[in-house]
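Batch job 17 of 40 flagged for manual review because the log was empty.
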Amino acid sequence: MQDRQGLAEAAGLKAVVIDIESYASRLAAGRIIETLPAKGAGALVALFEIGALTTSMQVVRDDEVLYERDQGFGGAQLTQLIVRHYGFSAEEAESKKRSGELPEDYDTAVLRPFVDSVAQEVGRALQFFFTSTPHHKVDHVLLAGGSAPLPGLTEAVTQQTGFAASLVNPFEGMELASSVRLKKMVREAPAYLTACGLAMRRFLQ
């Protein structure tokens, strides 16, 4: 926290509010949980943010955090698989991953096995939760982060865990400016969960 405050001061800025990433993502996720049946009251919700290097898991119920865990897997591993399989540089692999300009066998040879491995990691994380607490199920699994929109991931997580999984859109229900590129926003929305939560702090002051 002090490091971030120091960075702000070094840039000539005065930090007014310094937030914690997990708090911000949970704030934004709260809007989504309220759209669940009975406004999510009493529901046990597992939120996964799949980042580049780390996937964070939070299990919440009625705004209370019951469990938190970080695991060392993320979208960067898919980039590494593309590098190894096709011989691209890391920069080329990342660019082609984002643009979708990959060889015809990418879906079956690289993407599908990676999606299955992510689903298995999500299932493993849930098992850690079940063995560490009195709980043995969750009501909903929410997927966020830059790798969450990977084709087939939501379905793979549902199949692997047996719990309904859905993709997070933190902008759902918000009024959008005409300048917003809707298709791009929808495609990238799960990556902005934490950023959305940070922005929402302004309206809570």
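Reviewer: the log was empty due to a logging misconfiguration, but the result itself is present. The mean pLDDT is 87. Unflagging and moving on to job 18.
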